[in-house]
Amino acid sequence: MMEKSELRKKYKKSLDTLNRCTYEQNSYVISKRLKELKEFKEANTIAITLSRFPEVDTWQIIRHLWDIGKQVAVPKCVPQTKEMVFKQITSFTQLESVYFGLYEPIDVASEIKKTDLDLIIVPGLAFTKQGYRLGFGGGYYDRFLLKYEGSKISLAFSEQIKQNLPIEDHDIPVDIIITESDKIICR
């Protein structure tokens, strides 16, 4: 099996070829399917990443969360410690552009304790039907999920579902993966 770094390049290149109209439509369908989940409906505080093309669009999901009165927590990476914290945002103006074109909450945003997060939307480049994922290489989510007890859901396009991925001892699977055509129960 290829090294993780080679797989990341391969899968990123494949996703980059996604047609914009297909991307928008499939992101919309995935967000609708997410909203139907019991875990989503019952969660008060949802941790969610700020997507970049070609990841499934989470910006529209965040708008919906605000519209229905849910707390939105977005990740802030702490490179010095290789850890990640989640901070509440109530507006996109509470974000700043950091490295690699990623958006993170500004420093004044309130930190949300891990135990207060009911649901985490976990990003990734590729996933297995068992819930294992190939992330973007920083290991931030792997470390964060080690002691996380709430629901873990990933959003993916069907072409991101793979038969096999390299799995390591520290990898934590997600509970559910939502694609435009499937709800994969992993737990």
- CATH class label: Alpha Beta
Number of discrete helical segments: 5
Number of domains: 1
CATH fold call: Rossmann fold
Main sheet strand line-up = 6-3-2-1-7-10-11-12
Unreliable residue runs: none
Please, what is the average pLDDT?
90
Radius of gyration (Å):
15 Å
CATH homologous superfamily caption: NagB/RpiA/CoA transferase-like
Q: Structural class of the helices, strands and pairings?
A: alpha/beta
Tell how many strands the DSSP assignment holds: 12
What is the strand content? 15-25%
- Write the element-wise H/E pattern from the N-terminal end onward: HHHEHEEEEEEEEHEEE
The major sheet is characterized as:
8 strands, mixed
**CATH architecture label:** 3-Layer(aba) Sandwich
Euclidean distance between termini CA atoms: 25 Å
**Gross geometry:** globular
Helix content: 25-40%
